[in-house]
């Protein structure tokens, strides 16, 4: 069964296909997009071992010529060096504007390749083939592309929509439980920001989904992508509603920076902690009931996820230094931090009206400080 979610953006509209075996059947979905039977694939060394031969065999069988660039795996690849390497490799391959570049991998590869496609010859088309849960439900959809700067994450980039997203659910079976659960942090985020029935559903089906239930995985990815597609169609370049997708991210980015963007804290783990803190802060400000943060934490705990800064382990600096790091957040306007808070589960909104003392108190509690 293949589910389709349409992202409605006028002449930049595209489909997200979600289902099993999509890497092996990629040629069928790519052929209608190709002006000539030639693609360039960019992936990383972990994903290449698991999925590249399947994709290459499928393309060859359909008579589609292909070349592959295999980059090192990990967040460090989302930087100027590998970006330059990718752009120059695509030029060496004589990839033209009418060609298609395929990003096969997780969020790092999707963001980097999307950005390379955005600037190559002032924009070539690209197809996202996300292989991690995080990439399937978030980063492959909506056209945010980019790399990290020494000053912070995702600070260099462009909006460049893919022409197609192929989310092969089978790829999720190759993830470690930790990577799968990190992606689940972004799935929960959708329920919390704007879909209370989806959160109810996750409370019931989340454990099944983690154990490998394919139908539940397809449904969770479909609903997440549909929610993201609706938001992106309303606000492609984040002038308003799209900021809701950053629920939990203001806290998360500070924690990722404090842990050096290392394996100590994966992005989705930071999002889970950030969502728990955003609900704590909302409750503290009297915006939602006290039961809401408890329910958020209970579900994350049931899934075996982090909910507090103490769960990270090791030094994350002082609470003041964490708040300082938040000032690099892309949502800062005129120096004022903006938070995504909630009036209840599924009722998030953006606000700049948050007293710093309350932020400090919520973070201190989460760090086990009185
Ligand atoms: N990951 C948030 C967004 O795409 O807007």
Which regions are unreliable across 5 or more consecutive residues at pLDDT < 50?
none
Number of helices: 13
Q: What do we call the CATH topology of the largest domain?
A: Dehydroquinate synthase-like, alpha domain
Look at the structure and give the CATH class of the largest domain. Answer: Mainly Alpha
Structural class: alpha/beta
Number of strands: 11
Please describe the biggest sheet, giving its number of strands, its sense, and whether it closes into a barrel.
7 strands, mixed
Describe what you observe in this structure:
- With 370 residues, this protein is α/β, with parallel strands linked by helices.
- It is built from 13 helices and eleven strands.
- It has two domains: 2-174, 3-Layer(aba) Sandwich (Rossmann fold), CATH 3.40.50; 177-366, Dehydroquinate synthase-like, alpha domain (Up-down Bundle), CATH 1.20.1090.10.
- Helices cover 46% and strands 17% of the residues.
- A seven-stranded mixed β-sheet has the order 1-2-9-6-5-3-4, with helices on both faces. Strands 7-8 form a two-stranded antiparallel sheet. Strands 10-11 form a two-stranded antiparallel sheet.
- Helix 5 runs parallel beside helix 6 and helix 6 (177-194) packs antiparallel against helix 7.
- The chain is globular.
- The model has no long low-confidence stretch (mean pLDDT 95).
